Amino acid sequence: MKFDHIIIRYGEISTKKRNRKGFVDKMKAHIRWSLKDIEGVVLTANRERMYVLLNGVDHKPVIERLKGIFGIQSLSPAIKIERDLEVMKTAALYYLNQTSEEVSTFKITTKRADKDFPYNTDEINRALGGHLLRNTENVTVDVKNPDLNLLVEVRREAVYLTGEIIQGAGGLPFGSSGKAMLMLSGGIDSPVAGFLSMKRGLDVEAIHFYSPPFTSERSRQKVIDLAGKLAEINGSMKVHIVPFTEIQLLIQKQIPENYSMTTTRRLMMRVADKIREKEEAMALITGESLGQVASQTMSSMFAINEVTNTPILRPLITMDKTEIIKIARELDTFEISNLPYEDCCTVFTPASPKTKPKREKVNYYESFVDFDSLIEKAVSETEILTIKPGQTFDKEEAMEDLF
Amino acid sequence: MIYFDNSATTKPYPEVIESFMKVSSDYFGNPSSLHGLGVQAEKLLSAARKQIADLLKVKGSEIYFTSGGTEGNNLAIKGAAQYRNNRGKHIITTAIEHPSVEDACQSLTKSGFEITILPVNEYGQIDMTDLKEALREDTILVSIMHVNNEVGSIQPIADIGKILERYPHVLFHVDNVQGAGKVPLSLREANIDLCTFSGHKIHGLKGTGFLYIREGVQIDPLFHGGNQETQIRSGTENVAGIVALSKAFRISMNNQLLYHDKLEQIKTYLYKGLLETEGVLVNSPEEGAPHILNFSVPLLKSEVLLHALESDGIIVSTTSACSSKKRSVSKTVDAMFRDQARSESVIRISTAYGNELEEAKRVLAAIRKIVANLEKIMRVAK
After folding, report:
1. Among B47, B247, B250, whose Cβ lies nearest the Cβ of A392?
2. Which of A34, A119, B124, B332 could form a disulfide with B150 if both were Cys (CB 3.0 to 4.6 A apart)?
């Protein structure tokens, strides 16, 4: 018994009207890409659904991959069998036994497109239902709210069996919302913010501020590892590593201690915005959560946001730390993020930063310093890496031979 | 020389030694050091961890490097028992485990643990009903090997895992030292909580190995110190050995796909040939692992046959680590057949992917010649 095809339902895209084709095409491309090394499978699409024709390939690995693709609401594997009641019985039992979730109640819904089939829908329902009850333990019928609604479709050429509904990742297809730059610190929040943005169809590139010798090479490595995790979603992630030491030293020297954090964030924003412009992206993404730390109070955000009118997306703004950690654990980024190394956010943090900085004051302090040339320099010296899924080495290819 | 003792240890792959030397000389930093050299070593460590995890389809954070099979088994059993001794003090294992499992379990009886030892049938397999009956309210651990080191019998690990699924308070430990790279085993599907692997049995270097600990499973460490390996195994990591191990594992898994049939062919040839040889009793089950073949010549002491084969340039094993003063008895063969003469005259042949059918032909011919000659003159083993 083999699965014939997998049905893919669109979810939110189906509410789109005239530009639906664009969304569907993006998703199609992404699915094709994610299945490219599985030989034999064919993808077809219509306005309502997509179908992956398996052509003999095992359905499980295909489903595993499809589950991670944004834009897919749900999936159902389907069996194709000959028009024979005994075969249909065997197939129904097989279907029930292979479901990923434990099924304790079921119902059978038969559709008979071919009225010449010798049994009517009622007879088929009963024959298959009886067969399932006889051959399973602790499984009962529930026609109102079954765990599995086994759909049997009798057509002229064959009989199709489907019914298990596997939840997809939801969201919008990759890249359908354009490009944005993620400020990736190495902490717990920013990778989660990146993931949620990607879920809404954004093509995300990361920006990391690197301040050697004040931040260790390990914090840079952490960012590469995190990018490697996020890259699993679409195959690669660009990481812009900004040399930030000079700017930070100048801030330490010129800005009063309690405002140094506010200015640091403002300058990070300015540098990031410049890189965004170069990369033709349309937004910046941060992992800020309202009130979590001094730089994320409403007053701080008001003071920091002044430096740009580029949209700043803050997917985590209303989330509690526990909710963020939960997603980070699911993403497998939590353990990487939780490693205790100094990063751009922890080094140089004053003992008592302003939680209610004022725009006038920070502008006044900054007016005595010329940051523009240093910003230009940082942008031009930014190193760009393209990280592949699970990649651990950034440039020391010599090490690859060791494995 | 024909090396047919690959279950004792394997010859490291040349590429593996190359990696070991390169890492030892170029990347000798301590992975815990903050400087660049340390960072490099740590990168190598995490890349090795990831490669091994990917080959097993598990997470990197579930791989804990050890010094080999003995440490892995001790860490799994004692660590689990210590961590869970408030939950219960009953452990189930089998009659044919490696001493590092058997004796680790026995050592726990001193702290009040009770051990149930499941018998095996003549195919070297446990009976599922025995297992089900042995499970108790206070059982905390079941430790069952995948492939037996003496006769190559394979336990139905996936079925056992299925049974244990219904006992969430019982941890499932599998000693996979002999099965790795030879007999497929899905850690996830078999519901395994702890699984031991050794490097030198898969053409890596001695003193390397790892223990798989499923995410969420907690055990106590054996060693205390610098809290390496997320506090489960303190001690500076053997980075060069670990990198070499990850390479050996990759090549072995690859060879498993490429040369499994060849190994099976060699075994079938020897199996059939030995069955037809007078005076020889085959102890390995026909359905066992493709690389281990165990037989007895009840009229000859194992050592005599071993040395006779050695002088012909053929290296095999008696499956016994006992000293020559003690009478060497194969525990597994004894558990399977309860026949003293048979379990005292055991010879084990164990192959690797590099072996050829031609070698097996020479070995079979040599065994036949020696058995025929020696039986005439040797004194009969008591």
Report:
1. B47
2. B332
- Closest by CA position to B251, among listed B13, B11, B7: B13
Check CB contact under 8 Å for B34 and A218: yes
Mean pLDDT taken over chain A:
90
The CATH number of A3-167, from 3.30.2130.30, 3.30.9.10, 3.30.870.10, 3.40.50.1000, is 3.30.2130.30
What residue ranges do the domains of chain A occupy? 3-167, 179-398
List alpha helices for A75-216, DSSP H. Answer: 85-98, 121-134, 189-199
| Prior bond of B285 cis (ω within 30°) | no
Q: B59 to chain A: which residues are within 8 Å by CB?
A: 332
> Considering only CB atoms, which chain B residues are within 8 Å of A393?
43, 47
Assigned architecture for domain B14-251: 3-Layer(aba) Sandwich (3.40)
pLDDT at A14 over 80: no
CB contact under 8 A, B46 and A392: yes
Q: Single out the catalytic residue among B21, B158, B322, B372.
A: B322
Which DSSP letter does residue A31 get? H
State the smallest CA–CA distance between residue A327 and chain B in angstroms: 17
Phi, psi for residue B299 in degrees, rounded to 5: -85, -10
For position B373, what pLDDT does the model report?
A: 85
Interface mutation vs chain B, best among A219, A392, A394, most B CBs within 10 Å: A392
pLDDT digits 0-9 by tens, B45-89: 999 999 999 999 999 999 999 999 999 999 999 999 999 999 999
pLDDT at B325: 45
Closest residue in A to B15 (Cα–Cα): A402
Smallest Cα distance from A232 to chain B, Å: 14
Partners of residue A396 in chain B, C-beta under 8 Å: 40, 43
* CATH homologous superfamily for the domain A179-398: HUPs (3.40.50.620)
Give the pLDDT confidence of B264-322 residue by residue, as tens digits.
Answer: 999 999 999 999 998 899 999 999 999 999 999 988 888 889 999 999 999 999 875 54
How far is A53 from A35, CA to CA, in rounded Å?
Answer: 12
Partners of A342 on chain B (C-beta within 8 Å) are: none
Question: How far does CA A274 lie from the centroid of its chain?
Answer: 26
Closest alpha carbon within chain A to B37: A217
Q: Which of B6, B4, B7, B3 is nearest to B332 (CA)?
A: B7
Residue B322 falls in the annotated catalytic set: yes
Query: What angle in degrees, to the nearest 10, is found between the helix axes of B239-275 and B14-26?
Result: 170
User: Span A283-298, mean pLDDT?
Assistant: 92
pLDDT classification of B13: cutoffs 50, 70, 90: very high
Angle between helices B357-377 and B239-275 (to 10 degrees): 60
Chain A: nearest CA to B51, how far in angstroms? 8
pLDDT band for position B329 (cuts 50, 70, 90)? confident
Chain B nearest CA to A402, separation (Å)? 5
pLDDT band at B192 (very low <50, low <70, confident <90, very high): very high
Residue A51, token pair as written in the block: 């179908």
The answer to ipTM > 0.95 is no
CATH 3.90.1150.10 correct for B2-6+258-372 = yes
Structure tokens at B265: 């062919």
Task: Determine, for residues B50 and A392 on separate chains, whether the beta-carbon distance falls below 8 Å.
Answer: yes
- In the predicted model, is pLDDT for residue A215 greater than 90? no
As given in the structure block, the two tokens for residue A62 are 């295909």
